[in-house]
Amino acid sequence: MGIFILLILWSLTFLLGRWRQQGTRRFSRWIPSMVFFRVSLTAALLSRLVTASGLQGDFVGWFAVVAKTGLYVAFVELVLDLLWVLVTRLNHRGVAPPRILKDLALVAAAFVIVAVEMNSQGLLTTVGSAAVLGGLAFIVGPGSATQIGNISSALAVQVERQFEVGDWVEIAGELGRVDNISWNSTYLYDDRDDRYIVIPNSLIDKGTTVNYSRPSSNEYRLEVEIGLPLELAPGKAIALLKKVLESHDEVIPGARTAIVIRSVDHDSINYVLKFFVADFASRNRVRTEIFSSIWYSVERAGYAFPYTVVDLRTARSKSQALEERQQVSLQESFTRLRRIELFASLSDAEIESIVEKDRLLSYGPGEMLVVMGDVGGSMFVIMEGSCSVLIPNPSGGEGMTEVAQLHEGTIFGEISALTDAPRTASIRAVNHVVVQEISQRQIEVIFLNNEAAMAEFAKVMAQREAGRKAFSATETEEFELGLVERMTKTFSRLMFR
């Protein structure tokens, strides 16, 4: 190979290496590492220059043979690297094939190249024999059994396709994503503790390997076990748990989702939720969110999680403490409602009736309080926390778009509750949220006996709506009259249920 061609190749590899490092070109991600190929080109170029200078001798001859052999091996490695980059980029999972396969191919090609080159130089008999003996000495040397076991296990993994790079597996009690399979070890990435786990390949044959990415790499089964109180009927409990699963965006719907009773204890019924998600890396977060949603759902249903407690208080003192907590909660709700302009027309007794007969409801982060399109039977006042107001994506894409946030003291759902109109937006909890529910029934009792309060209520709502939509005075008045009419129809209908 001429010096000029070697110079062109060396310059090209240098330029491509810089582009790969900087990532300034569109095709930079397709460029493999060419360090060994460039080193081999440098050695071949030096050999050509030395030969061209007229120097001779055994060292010069040997250097030329080594440089030529190294260049051939480097070229094979470059082709394999290009192939591996191509396979990785075209793979929908974006993971590379196991490195051991490339190493085996490179070693085999290197042996062939070295044998051919040595044979052409008439050195195969002597030097080749020495190389074979050196290889045998390595094989039968100290630690050879472990080394052979590691290599054979690595080959068995690839031949039997037990797992691949990118699969989520559990080996020797360690859970992680397969990052690399080398000659000696398998490397797992533990996303929970952000660490790499190196497992000798020989251990794979000695224990059980669980592959969570098989048979499908698009669906991963998760389980959540939870104990619910005995007084919560199983049918009702299963319906509650099913609703929690159906409301989570990352749970894949389907017939394989199951809720079963695992056991019954002296104070609880233990349920197991079996479901599937698309991303195994999200398992811990999804489990946490599922458990959180269950807690809030159980609490809103009026039940408490079972637990063993030794209570030394008398029944009277416990009852008194519970009553005191309830009174504090009622007083807080009364104070909050009394400050809201919308309820200014109501008497203290009417507001007290609302907080005594309606409920305080708790929601966890991400839970839906109101779903767009549903017909509302209640309005709500935020007592604690914040909520997002969501509408369908204006661009027509999937998902919902946040258009506003609601904070403590904000009332929402009033139009739907008072007129039976469908909800115009969805409301989702941003954090821990407590709301005071105000049901249609309570409003009905108040307004049917107090038409003046209903008229004042409608007036305040019309003014609020005018501020939101920039109504004129005439439009505001029309909205107020229309609202009174719709409220009258709604409550008249409710009265005859």
Question: Which structural traits does this protein have?
Answer:
497 residues, alpha+beta, SH3 type barrels, Alpha-Beta Plaits, 4 domains, five-stranded antiparallel sheet, four-stranded antiparallel sheet, 14 helices
Give a verbal description of the structure.
The chain is built from 14 helices and 16 strands. It folds into four domains: about 5-140, no CATH class; about 160-210, SH3 type barrels; about 220-300, Alpha-Beta Plaits (2-Layer Sandwich); about 330-495, Jelly Rolls (Sandwich). Strands 4-3-2-1-5 form a five-stranded antiparallel β-sheet, with no helix packed on it. Strands 9-16-11-14 form a four-stranded antiparallel β-sheet. Strands 10-15-12-13 form a four-stranded antiparallel β-sheet, with no helix packed on it. It is elongated and about 115 Å long. The longest helix has about 35 residues, at about 60-90. It has about 500 residues and is of the alpha+beta class. It has helices at about 5-20, 35-50, 60-90, 100-120, 125-140, 145-160, 235-245, 285-300, 315-340, 350-355, 415-420, 440-450, 450-470, 475-495, and strands at about 170, 175-180, 185-190, 195-200, 210, 220-230, 260-265, 270-275, 360-365, 370, 380-385, 385-390, 400-405, 410, 425-430, 435-440. Strand 1 (about 170) and strand 2 (about 175-180) form a beta hairpin.
Summarize the helices and strands and which ones pair or pack:
Blueprint lengths: L2 H20 L12 H18 L5 H33 L8 H22 L5 H14 L4 H17 L7 E4 L2 E8 L3 E6 L4 E6 L8 E3 L8 E10 L4 H14 L10 E7 L3 E10 L5 H18 L14 H25 L8 H10 L2 E4 L4 E3 L7 E7 L2 E6 L7 E7 L4 E2 L1 H6 L6 E4 L3 E7 H9 L2 H19 L3 H23 L2
Antiparallel strand pairs: 1-2, 1-5, 2-3, 3-4, 6-8, 7-8, 9-16, 10-15, 11-14, 11-16, 12-13, 12-15
Helix pairs in contact: 1-2, 2-3, 3-4, 7-8, 9-10, 12-14, 13-14
